[in-house]
Amino acid sequence: MNGIEQALTTGVEGGTVILFPALGELIGQRAGIVNLGTEGCMLAGALAAYAVAAVTGSAWLGVVAGFVAGGAVGFAHSWLVVRRKADQLASGLVLWFLAIGLTSVLGTTYVSRTVNALPIVKVPGLGSIPWLGTILFTHDPLVYASYVLVAVVWWALYRTRVGLVLRATGERPEVVSVAGRRPELVQIAAVTLGAALAGIGGAQLSVGYVDSWFDDMTNGYGFIAVAVVLFAAWRPLLVLLGAYVFGVALAAASVLQAHGVAVNQYVLDALPYVVTLVALVLFARSGGSRAPEGLSRALTNTS
Amino acid sequence: MSLIARGAPARPSSDAGAGVVAPSLLERLGDVSGWRRAGLTLGAYVASLALFGAVVGTQHANPLSVYDSIVHSALLDGGSLAAVVLRAVPIVLAALAVSVPARAGLVNVGGEGQLIVGAVGATGVGVALGAAVPGPLGWLLMALAGFGAGALWGGLAGLLRVSVGANEAVTTLLLNFVANDLMLYLLYQPWKDPTGGGQPESRPLVASEILPKLFGSSVNLGVIVAAVVALVVHVLLKRTGWGFALRVVGGNQVAARRAGLPVHRLMVSSMATGGGLAGLGGMLYLAGTQVQLLPGGTATYGYIAFLAAFLGRHEPLKVVVAALAFSAIAVGAPGLQLDYGLDGNVVDVLLALIVAAPLALSANRKKAF
């Protein structure tokens, strides 16, 4: 396997860690709510998945636990923001901080445990395509699930009534209430579901990508997921692309080192954040005008 | 009414009562909703403390004795009061770094990175100067380097906000990670102390560069500087045209622009000032307490500061009180680890829950508009 192939393969695997939370964040932001606590949802998901996998021996039960744990944190965020009118950005950060503390405390016993990680499954047929087969179809099943999820989110968003109500909630909640639906419930459901997906991203990290649990292991990936949604201008297919760009930047460090390229490790570690910042600079302006109206009010602190 | 919560931290709370005649004490006592609000507030904080008790309970620690030992280690043990005040220095300055831009409606979550680059800048200058200049001049140059580095880091996020519309909460968060990697790069390669036994540490500052201790205690000059800076920021925000203009921008950007205020310049200057304050905090902590640049030296003080700034509702003097309280809780962490086997990060849970209480009460807050 050459360096580029390896970087792309690892990039897809690591990009999936961002893709789940980014798609989840896209759903919530389309309903007009930012969740900076995505980082906390991922942490909660990562620990819940790892702990359940360690105790039951089943990584899949772990993934379910990650989904539930992420959703629980997200529900708290949506309750504070929607029902209690808390500031969105502050609420997300407080929940992130809460998750850091809780996962450190509850996770100490799992630091040295081992789990049966998610298996790598080569897709029959597709996996044998030269080059692309390795990059796209030799992964753990959550990666394949994420491919399907992108399509489902796109379809649901643009082709279904649910998607229409969701988008309308993010743009003009009052129109939704005139149409006889409760925008508050739509927002709570969207944020909770989105956070549950972030929990799956955390699970992909702990029981799929790195196979271990340690304090603060999400390392800012949740914030990158939020940034990806912003520069992808709330479009699912661009979110997919952005997540993989990030994944490759993340993989570059280990691949370059494995090939003996002498680049300082900490310069490489900074790469994903720098790449994300550059992408924000390049695309923020063009994307900004596409922001759901309710969301841009929250993002710019104007009413 | 908008269903989207407006940026509460951005709202200058002091103008909440503008134009409203302050109610007399008698009127306030008769104000049933006021009593209800007070009860709810109390209830929310009690619920926070109870939740934290439940968390430590799951770790087989007695919640009451945990609270008892936090109070003891923060206030009653000899010397720990000094530790609280010392640790509050970076927290206070990084919290002011949140509050100044908040006046202009901006969310600076970059206190952590700004503390780091401030300490990095101060280390660069301090190590280069060595004993070449007398102490006070060395302190001043290091402080300028720290402030300047922090101002660049914060100002960059402000610039990205006004030029391309990149949300400053997201960019400051990302810049925190970049700052940390920058510091690690310096500590593992060019700045590594060759005599440090292989540890990733910078050379220590020379004795004359270290801030002097005061009153024969471990409290150093940095504490005085932080207190003075907090007062200056208070005056800047309350008594100067700049502070007033920031509040106008934070209140209504469109109106501010129509009134002829240089909105973009004000926003960038508030972010740069905030970043500079945190950078100064990084310098004071380095030159007063750490004496050499260490990985993880800021220990999430930047994030604790964000919570403190929010709890203090961005009023500089209240922010200082909140920062001191949070510093006291943070100082208690090692004791909890020692006595109860609780992970030191357990205090993050307590801090987050304390700030969650006012968040949960946002809907009950009296609003001026």
For this entry, give a set of tags.
heterodimer, A: 303 residues, mainly alpha, ABC transporter involved in vitamin B12 uptake, BtuC, two-stranded antiparallel ribbon, 13 helices, 2 strands, 75% helix, globular, B: 369 residues, 2 domains, 15 helices, disordered N terminus
Structure notes:
The complex is a heterodimer of chains A (303) and B (369). With 303 residues, chain A is mostly helical. Helices cover 75% and strands 1% of the residues of chain A. Chain A contains 13 helices and two strands; from the N terminus they run H-H-H-H-E-H-E-H-H-H-H-H-H-H-H. In chain A, strands 1-2 form a two-stranded antiparallel sheet. The mean pLDDT of chain A is 89. Chain B has 369 residues and is an all-alpha fold. The termini of chain B are close together. The radius of gyration of chain B is 21 Å and the shape is globular. Chain B folds into two domains: 30-61 and 341-369; 79-340, ABC transporter involved in vitamin B12 uptake, BtuC (Orthogonal Bundle). The chains are: A mainly alpha (303), B mainly alpha (369). Chains A and B meet through helix 3, helix 4, helix 9, helix 10 and helix 12 of A and helix 7, helix 12 and helix 15 of B.
Mean pLDDT of chain B: 85
Report the radius of gyration of chain B as a whole number of Å. 21 Å
Q: Assembly state here?
A: heterodimer
Q: What is the CATH-assigned architecture of chain A?
A: Orthogonal Bundle
CA-atom Rg of chain A in angstroms: 19 Å
Instruction: Name the structural class of chain A.
Output: mainly alpha
Reading off the top of the CATH hierarchy, the class of chain A is best stated as Mainly Alpha
Q: Level of helix content of chain B?
A: 55-70%
Order of helices and strands of chain A: HHHHEHEHHHHHHHH
Mean pLDDT across every amino acid position of chain A: 89
How many independent structural domains of chain B?
A: 2
DSSP summary: helix tally of chain B: 15
Unreliable residue runs of chain B: 1-19
Distance between the termini of chain A: 54 Å
For the largest interface in this structure, which chains are involved and how many residues does each contribute?
Answer: A-B, 64 and 63 residues
CATH-derived topology of the largest domain in chain B: ABC transporter involved in vitamin B12 uptake, BtuC
* Estimated share of beta-strand residues of chain A: under 5%
Write down the CATH topology of chain A: ABC transporter involved in vitamin B12 uptake, BtuC
Shape of chain B: globular
